[in-house]
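Lab notebook, page 48
Experiment: co-folding of the full assembly
Goal: obtain a model of how the components sit together before planning crosslinking
Operator: M.T.
Materials (sequences as entered):
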Amino acid sequence: MHPTPDLPEALPAGLPAPASTEQLDGLAHDLRAAGMKPLRSAGDLEGLAADGFVYSPVLQPLLCGRRAQIGVAVSSAEEVLQVATACVRHGVSLTVRGAATGNYGQCIPLAGGLLLETSGLKRLRHVDDSSGVFTAEPGIVLSDLDQQLQEHGRELRLVPSTMRTASLGGYVAGGSGGIGSLRWGFLRDPGHLLGAEVVTLEPQPRLLQLDARAAEPLNHAYGCNGIFTALTMASAAAVPWQQLVLEFSSWDRALEASQQLPASALVLNALCTLEAPVAAQLPWPQGCPPADGRAHRILLLAAPDALPLLQSWLPQLQGALIWQAPQGQSRGLPLRELTWNHTTLHLRSQDPDLTYLQLLLPQPEGPALDGLRQRWGDGVLWHLEAVRSMGRQRLACLPLVRWRGREDLQALIDHARELGCLLFNPHAITVEDGGLGVVDADQVAAKHSYDPGGLLNPGKLRGWR
Ligand SMILES: Cc1cc2nc3c(=O)[nH]c(=O)nc-3n(C[C@H](O)[C@H](O)[C@H](O)COP(=O)(O)OP(=O)(O)OC[C@H]3O[C@@H](n4cnc5c(N)ncnc54)[C@H](O)[C@@H]3O)c2cc1C
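Observation: model returned without errors.
Model output:
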């Protein structure tokens, strides 16, 4: 039995009451005294009130209209500490916002309170040229950070397909993987996050320097147990990635290639497999032939030295290379912005009745996929992403699902589980329910230490309740 329903029908129980006018006035007074500008107009607060939860027809009615009662933008760790101190003093809850591209309403406050806008915290503080380890502030946009790392011959190991807008802090606190997951696994794998500077919401808030182990419970905790003011992370040697589009007339051959290519010694950074009807509805980079609705496509980011072997291997895999361009030099959308949840974004722009799931397929993948394809027909369209999970090459998938109501979506989830798929539920509100469904005792313990009053992002950490 799953501990909580997969598809929530109500907000989590036990949310604190919104702040009173008296609390808000006191907080605003303290913020102004510290030289900051509290945002209280309906327009300002409305502008801070949305993220990508709209992709979920389950979350939409629950989160729509939820907003903060006061906002403030910060540009230094000292200001974050002052905001935290004021929130504790007046007992007002605090939710952090990066770039608000999360898909589960991670930065949508469930109980009003203050929204901390962090885009002004955007410095790359340090790069160690011998190891590539860097320290950057959480509000930095990932593509800006990556560009600055390139000047040191380095690049980010993992980025979401939203890297042109998403922030580093939001990615670590609310994201999971994406481009690079084929090589580097997921953000919570040990070795990516090497340390963090954090502001607490203790009775007397502090600015702490945490090493890798101490920072771990704050990784992917939706900002429920501390506020990042800097993150220290590993990077990778920069590679001039080539964007390649392959075509296959048979789905089985496309699936085989999706299994075999990541199992080779080719250096690949992403492999995204799209069933023909999905490929047919995507916009393609300039110069790339549009999809005809019959051929399935694999999108690859590959190192230049992968090309000679790929070209000679493709006939045997029964695929064909139909387009290639260096990343950063093609016109129109980068290939990256057709992968991960960008696939969902583009398909939903054509048909807003589509939603999605996130599954890790069992191995071998073929039987589970066949079972799902047979039962769900064209009510579900298939989109796979190659990933490394627990050190092994695996296939994840983000199927596009025609919304026919909660029962139908639950039946699909149940069927996928019966076939051995692992669900990473995008229709969930709490940290735990969007992951493996289990409470992480270290995350909860960190909340007890750093946020004993439960003021940070209330309602999002199920284990706290
Ligand atoms: C089209 C599309 C494609 C996507 N593709 C991917 C993908 O490939 N991979 C992926 O993992 N995700 C993906 N996402 C989800 C999302 O873009 C990423 O998770 C992104 O990195 C979130 O960053 P953000 O700055 O927008 O964070 P936000 O949405 O602003 O915040 C996310 C969470 O982090 C917390 N937070 C933010 N800053 C801090 C801080 N300084 N301290 C503590 N907590 C903080 C917030 O409170 C919130 O809980 C996609 C979303 C969309 C809409």
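Interpretation: Residues 51-52, 95-103, 106-107, 118, 138, 160-162, 166-167, 169-171, 173-178, 222-223, 227-228, 340-342, 345, 457 surround flavin-adenine dinucleotide (CB under 6 Å).
Next step: discuss with group before ordering constructs.
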